[in-house]
Every structure is written in C-alpha cells, then in structure tokens.
Design a protein that fits this description.
Oligomer: single chain
Number of helices: 1
Order of helices and strands: EEEEEEEEEEEH
Shape: globular
Largest sheet: 6 strands, antiparallel
Strand order of the largest sheet: 1-2-3-10-5-8
C-alpha cells in the first residue's frame, strides 16, 4: 500500500493510517514556519511531538509542547501549529470525527495566502 504524502509551503505530511473515523499523519514543519490559523467543524485532533518543539495556539491559549508531550484540539476551536525552533518539528497527528476531508479546514489567517476569498476575517487581515 502506498502512503499518501503531501508537500506544503510549511513542510510535509504523510498519512500513516486511515479509515472513515480516524486518520493518523506524520507532519514535519520546517524551522520558523507555521500552519494557518484554522478550525474544523467535523473533527478533533490530538498532536504528539516526536522531534523539535511546537508552539500551539488553541482558542485564546498559546503554549509550548515538547518532545513526548501532546495536546488536544477540540472540534470547533481555532488552532495553529508553529515551529519556533532551528530543527524540523515532527508531530504525529491523530484526527478523529464524523468527517476527515481536507475541505473541513476553515482558514482565518495564513502566511501563504491560502485563505478562501469568502473568509472576511482573512480579507480584513490582508487589507
């Protein structure tokens, strides 16, 4: 079985295992990069740091997650993953929920201009 892999401006991901109720990914974030501030309507995520240090935004909280530590991102909560370090950040992400499609990502702020045009909050931040 061939693994699904993807390249993004912030790094790479590999889907390690999936079925209709969960998906497990290995995510590598380049030093100094971050994913978009986003949320999901249909899934929660659990992030386990295996290399590097993560800066996590979850709702109004911002905190650091180190190697062998984890954090939980509930359904409907704004969140962001950042790599403030000098080495690649590697996490294992476990998604679970009723729907795991990539079109369940609602972006509010993105360093790579990937917010949907309809998202007013993105337009305001870029303007």
């Amino acid at each position: 079985m061939e693994l699904e892999c993807g390249e993004r401006p912030w790094g790479t991901y590999t889907v390690l295992e999936e079925n209709k109720n969960y998906k497990i990914k290995r995510i590598e974030v380049k030093p100094g990069q971050r994913l978009s501030l986003q949320m999901h309507h249909h899934r929660s995520e659990h992030w386990i740091v295996v290399s590097g240090t993560a800066r996590v935004t979850c709702g109004d909280d911002e905190y650091t997650v180190n190697v062998n530590e984890s954090t939980f991102i509930p359904i409907g909560r704004n969140h962001r993953l950042e790599n403030p370090g000098k080495i690649p950040l590697v996490i294992i992400e476990v998604q679970s929920g009723e729907y795991l499609g990539e079109d369940d990502i609602i972006r509010f702020d993105d360093d790579y201009h990937r917010c949907e045009a309809a998202a007013a909050s993105c337009a305001e931040e870029e303007g």
